[in-house]
Amino acid sequence: MAITPQQRRPAPADEPSPGAEPTAGAEPTLAAEPTPAAESALAPSPAAAAPPLLEVRDLIVRFGLVRAVGGVSLELPGGQFGLALVGESGSGKTTIGRAVLRLVPAAGGQIRFAGADVTALRGRALKSYRRAVQIVFQDPAGSLDPRMRVGPTIAEALLAHRVVPRKQAPERAAALLAEVGLDEAFASRHPHELSGGQRQRVAIARALSVEPRLLVLDEPTSALDVRAQARILELIGRLRGERNLAYLLITHNFGIVSELCERTVVLYLGMVAEAGPTAALLAAPAHPYTRALRSAVPEVDPALRRSRVILHGEPPDAARPPAGCVFHPRCPLAIARCLTEVPQLAQVRPGRLVACHRADEVLSGAV
Ligand code: SF4
């Protein structure tokens, strides 16, 4: 499920990427034409009646015989809110983000944005959606056109969505650069003349240029050195307040979610292992997988230096998932029941969902 730089490079903001359109066969529920209701649902709604900004229900994504996402549900309210999707490589977190952006087709389930069925959007409604939801990729070197200078890169998005008249585009691009902490002199540089952190700032400025309502941040710091990582995280934290931003933060690193995300969904082999308010989930993980991921980042809790849970082995082949609990081959708490019986995602505390036969024991500290 590797993603090439070419696949990662976003299309100009108003154009679907090649292959981005799902086939009719893959998505039999697609409506032929947008309804007025679907178009109007992309406009801000009165708070009292507002549906969640993003609502994913029982999402399934397949790549051939491989079920990359196996029935995931999640919800993101509008406004200043971060939802983290956390898991190792192959957990399905990036695929969920790409399905939200319609870069991969859903084989089942629903994705709704401000109440509108995303898979049914066409024409103006689809263009509005492509403006409202922007992505920042892991590798800014792969997502920026190496031949284009920074200013025109940002202006291209501004003009594609008619955010400003052509004459005002350079000025707006400079203001966006300033907003992400770059001097306007950067507008005349090419991507190769920038550091990794500076390139990621440009990618964020371009994403913000069309005034999105939702950002998909796909491992936005994992290609950067530690200092640049800290600065980009600080920038995201600042922008969420200034821009009233909602975002999906896709990461393998629990260390970055505590400051930036109100809610966290932990994924394993395309399914939700655990979900809940980030603070509660970090304070007392209820799933052994969450516990292991958290213990890998002792800065979350220095006491964890003494209780590191080593996770052995790799996630299993998604084409041949294990019977019972898919985590059982790596789980230090597996019992006989886990080898045959699939644990259902169930509420163990208000707002906390866990798929583990032993969640109550884990939460109570009995194991
Ligand atoms: Fe481990 Fe069993 Fe819980 Fe799966 S159900 S996480 S194998 S204890």
Structural notes for this entry:
With 367 residues, this protein is α/β, with parallel strands linked by helices. The protein has 2 domains: 50-263, P-loop containing nucleotide triphosphate hydrolases (Rossmann fold); 284-364, no CATH class. 30% of the residues lie in helices and 19% in strands. The chain has 13 helices and 12 strands. The strands form 2 sheets. Strands 6-7-8-3-9-10-12-11 form an 8-stranded mixed β-sheet, sandwiched between helices. Strands 2-1-4-5 form a 4-stranded antiparallel β-sheet. Strand 11 (346-349) and strand 12 (352-354) form a beta hairpin. The radius of gyration is 21 Å and the shape is globular. The chain starts with a helix and ends with a helix. 44% of the residues are buried. Bound molecules: iron/sulfur cluster.
Can you tell me the residue ranges where pLDDT is under 50 for at least 5 consecutive residues? 1-47
**What is the average per-residue confidence, as pLDDT, rounded to a whole number?**
85
Q: How many DSSP H or I helices? A: 13
Small-molecule binders here are:
iron/sulfur cluster
Task: Name a few traits of the molecule.
367 residues; alpha/beta; Rossmann fold; 2 domains; eight-stranded mixed sheet; four-stranded antiparallel sheet; 30% helix; 19% strand; globular; disordered N terminus; binds iron/sulfur cluster
Set down the secondary structure blueprint.
Elements: H1 5-8, H2 36-40, E1 54-63, E2 66-76, E3 81-86, H3 93-100, E4 108-113, E5 116-117, H4 123-132, E6 133-136, H5 140-143, H6 150-160, H7 169-179, H8 196-209, E7 214-218, H9 226-243, E8 246-251, H10 257-260, E9 263-268, E10 271-277, H11 278-283, H12 288-295, E11 346-349, E12 352-354, H13 359-364
Parallel strand pairs: 3-8, 3-9, 6-7, 7-8
Antiparallel strand pairs: 1-2, 1-4, 4-5, 9-10, 10-12, 11-12
Helix pairs in contact: 6-7, 6-8, 7-8, 8-9
The structure holds iron/sulfur cluster.
Iron/sulfur cluster is lined by residues 287-288, 325, 327-328, 331, 333-334, 338, 343, 356-358.
